[in-house]
Input
Amino acid sequence: MNRHRLLSTLLAFAVVGLGEGASKRDSPLPVEDKDYWMKEMAEDIRRTQARQPNVKRAKNVLLFLGDGMGLPAIVATRIYKGQLQGRPGEETVLRFEEFPSTGLVKVC
Output
């Protein structure tokens, strides 16, 4: 049963993560260059802080509920997607990770 659940989770990630096409970070990245990664993260922080919050009342809400999609499954999917594109994989960003608002809830 656990194997079936794992395969279902990976299939769901393949549909969501790979079906959308290539991510905006398609070029091979310099893995060992510390300054590159510092600049990359500083730019991500700047973009996030510059985003204006939407204070309007929501008309339609889409809720993606990934049952069984824990952090290890997300990381494995990210690496797998990157490797399919001929890159190491760890730096790959899945499409849903680029949504402006996301959350993670863990229920025991």
Observations:
- Residues 8-16+64-108 form one domain.
- DSSP finds three helices and no strands in the chain.
